[in-house]
TrEMBL record:
Residues 6-63 form the HTH lysR-type domain. Keywords: DNA-binding, Transcription, Transcription regulation. Pfam families: HTH_1 (PF00126), LysR_substrate (PF03466). This is DNA-binding transcriptional LysR family regulator.
């Protein structure tokens, strides 16, 4: 039996269409007409011998075959891109220095390093994990090539905005505001100020007229998680790296005020980076884009 060869360009358009929520948007992104994109989709359906999409109201939905192909397509594209990058950039060498907040170091760093090392095995990656203000200072002074930073008011010349990520109150599943209704202050578990999460959260409590107190102050994210898991108070972060024993608290059910989103930014030491730094930045941004879909 001769199996057909799936078309890489068609697979990329297929994946992009469902990531963007529209094949019309995918057509704009890849620079093709909508009829050309439709032809690519028909070609894929002919190759697999099954319909991949079906009408759902005014839009399109994946069939069972489409869902299976979407999963395979992402893996095929990842492997294709990894192979091309490896062959084209195998000459890269040297070192690159990356700074990360603790959220990303604990949750996403292994994937970033794994992808980068498979493609650029001759490059040494140095990682610094610290609070945001220290990372930004080191990047601005040239001690780091790249760093990820929380917060909009960053004093650095070379910035790339990445996303606005929802911030949530985090605590144990059984945490309730009942004692707050009795006049007790909200017990907070937080980093020391300045902090891109602590200061807006306190501002939200003040605006809502809710008293608060710092129950635990920790320099480490693991310390915040441990204190919140022990029921000593609630903390405020994104859902990135959220431990299983903690949950995002619903503001309506808990009586807590909603929190503003937090900016995520890539800070660069130089406006014109060398190819090694650019290669790492591309992988960091790619992993973030993929993971944020599940946050």
């Amino acid at each position: 039996m001769v199996r057909p060869h799936l078309d890489i360009d068609a697979l990329r358009t297929f994946v992009l269409g469902f990531e963007l929520g529209s094949f019309a948007r995918a057509a704009d992104r890849v620079g093709r007409s909508q009829s050309a994109v439709s032809a690519q989709l028909r070609k894929l359906e002919e190759q697999v011998g099954q319909p991949l999409v079906t009408r759902a109201g005014r839009g399109l939905a994946l069939t069972d075959a489409g869902e299976r192909l979407l999963s395979y397509a992402r893996r095929i594209l990842d492997l294709n891109d990894e192979a091309i990058d490896s062959l084209r950039r195998s000459e890269l060498a040297g070192r690159v220095r990356l700074g990360l907040p603790q959220d990303f170091a604990e949750a996403w760093l292994p994937e970033v390093l794994g992808r980068f090392s498979r493609v650029h095995s001759n490059v040494l990656v140095e990682i610094v994990v610290e609070k945001v203000h220290a990372l930004v200072d080191k990047t601005r002074q040239g001690e780091l090539d790249l760093s990820l930073a929380w917060g909009a008011s960053i004093d650095a010349p070379h910035l790339t905005p990445i996303a606005e990520i929802p911030t949530v109150w985090i605590g144990r599943r059984d945490w309730r505001l009942g004692r707050i209704a009795r006049g007790e202050p909200v017990p907070l578990v937080a980093f020391e100020s300045p902090c891109s999460f602590r200061d807006p959260a306190i501002g939200a409590l003040d605006q809502a007229g809710l008293p608060w107190r710092i129950a635990v102050s920790s320099p480490s994210l693991s310390g915040l998680w441990a204190a919140a898991s022990a029921g000593l108070g609630i903390t405020m972060r994104t859902r990135i790296g959220l431990p299983d024993e903690l949950v995002a608290l619903d503001p309506t059910e808990s009586g807590l005020p909603a929190l503003p989103a937090v900016s995520l930014t890539l800070v660069r030491a130089e406006s014109e980076e060398d190819p090694t730094v650019s290669a790492l930045a591309e992988i960091v941004l790619g992993v973030i884009a993929e993971r944020l879909k599940t946050v």
